[in-house]
Every structure is written in structure tokens, then in C-alpha cells.
Here is the input.
Amino acid sequence: MSDAGAMWREQPEEGTEVRLEEIVNRRTEDLYRSTRSEILVSIGAALLFVGITAWRLAPGLERLQVVGFGAAIVWVVVCLYRFRGRIWGDAARPDARAASGVDYYRAELAQRRDHLRRAWLWHGPLLLACVVLAGTDSGYRHLRDVWPLVAVLAVWTGYGWVRRHRQAREIQREMDEI
Amino acid sequence: MESGAARSKRDELYAEARAAFGRALDRLAVGYESDPDKRHDLRQEIHLQLWRSFEVFDGRCAVKTWTFRVAHNTAVSYINRERRKNAGFVSLEEIERTAASMDRAPDIDQQRALEQLYGFIRQLKPLDRQIMICHLEDMDAAAIAEITGLSAANIGMKIHRIKNILSHRFLEEKRYV
Here is the structure.
């Protein structure tokens, strides 16, 4: 038996090679996918919220609620149009595979940072629907009955806001480094 | 936005580190992850963080020290993320206490001994694991101290324990005993 150090240093080599361009491109695509899923989840949540609320309040839907929920749906449509490139674009676009992967990665980081800083835009429909519900008599009565859930959602929203800003700062730092 | 010169300097440093320590970094990843696919991801993460880190390399320590610090810290973050799925880790001290009572297999082949060594390393707590891997990479106590931030005396004590464990638990060590 040879000694442990020699055995460790002479262990078989890894079969796969690590290539920096590949890593950067993969991270670029990961960022792209995260952004897309966040937009879709947020828009989906807004539609679900508006749909369920409208269904539950259907007989006594107030005028303000109709207008507010209508505005939220319009906002959703605007979001879908505004982010169409992010939602339906191809994550592995040709330039992601190009030699200047680092530049592309930096551009993707910048987009990701801007996306996080402008969370109000893609979270807007959900927020608007919540405000409309809380700001109307029938909606307020309903919310009062489920106040623990409302409290949890409020805390969650606050936490999400802090987390997104922290992520944006980290991305800015990463951009400064590369 | 960084300048072209700074970028090229970083790329040069990364290429230098990769050429000199690429194989050692691969071995380091083996000490932190057993699954080949996940290990490939870990290796990629280590290389990416290393490449990024050279942007702020100021030459206050050797490239080797810097490289291993970044690699170990990246791997530690990785196992901390993975820890939720796995059992907890143990310290060298805990292993040393049980090592004496364990039987050593008289004729284990090289491959099995290597597997045992991997298993042993992967159950260690992060700091002990760093020390163990650096020791197996033939670094002296001073170099390990620089990488880990512990005192050389503390490292010396830990290495003494590692030698004890290795000799008791798996290997007939001419070099260590």
C-alpha cells in the first residue's frame, strides 16, 4: 500500500474538462430562465387572484372592483407584451454561444439587475388587484375574515422586496468584478 | 466597466492558476462531492469563482494560496447548500476517538483504499476537510495555515490527528507514522 498522499495525488483524472466559456454561457441561460419564470409566476398569480376574487364576489362586484380588476388584466397584457422577448425568446440564443460569452453574460446580468429593480412592473397587476380588493367595502370584509393570511402575505411581500434589492446589489457587485 | 488590460491580467492569472493547480482543484472537488455530475457542476463553480476572483487579486499572497482559498470557500458554500440533504459532518477529534477501536483491513486494494479515503474526507467538517485535502496535496503547516486562516500550531495539531487516523483507520503509512 502506497501512502495516502501519493494515492490521493495519483487518483484517476476527471473524464470531463471544465471550460470557462461553457460555464459563463450556462450561467447566462440560468439567469435568463429565472427571469422568465419570475415574470410568468407573477403574472399567473395576478390572473389567478383576480379570477378567484371576481368569482367569489361575482354577485356583488362593486364598480371600483370591476374597473380595478380590469386595469390589472390590462396591466397583465401590457406586461406580456413588454416582456415578450424574455418569455418567448430562446434562452440559448446564438450570441450566447459566441466567443464573447463574458460580454453576453455581463449584458444578461445588467438585464437581470434592471428586472429586479423594476419588480413593481411585473408584480404590479397582483399588487393592484390586492389594493382594489382591500380598498373596497366587500373586499375589506372578506380580507378581515382571513387577516392572518393577509398578514403572512404582507410579510412575504416585504421580504421579497428586500431580497430582490439585495440580489440586485449582488449582481451589481458581480458586474463590477467582471 | 473594466478595462481590456485588467481583463487580460485576470485571464492571465486564471490561466496560470489553472495550468498549475487544475488537477489539484479536480481532486479537491472529489473531496467535496461524490456524484460525478454534481462534481462537474462544483468544478465549474470553482473555476468560475476563481476566474472572477482574480479581478481583485492584489498579490498580497501567492497565487497558490489565493487559488486554494477560493476553491475551498466555494466548495464549502456548496456543501453547506447540500448539507440539508445529507447527514451532518464530524470533526477529526470525533473520528480519532473511534479510530483506535476499528479494525484495519489487512489487504485492501488501491481502489478500495482510495474509496475509503474519499469517504473519510467527505464526512469531515468543512475546516477539517480543508486541512485534510491540503495535507494530502503535500502542503506544509505554514501553507495550510495561510489558506485556512488558522495558526500553524493549530494546523500542526490537526495534522498530527490526521496522521493518527490514517494510520489507525486505513493505511499502513510509512510516510505519516
Chain A touches chain B at residues 1-9, 11, 13-16, 18, 20, 22-24, 26-27, 102, 174, 177-178 (CB under 8 Å).
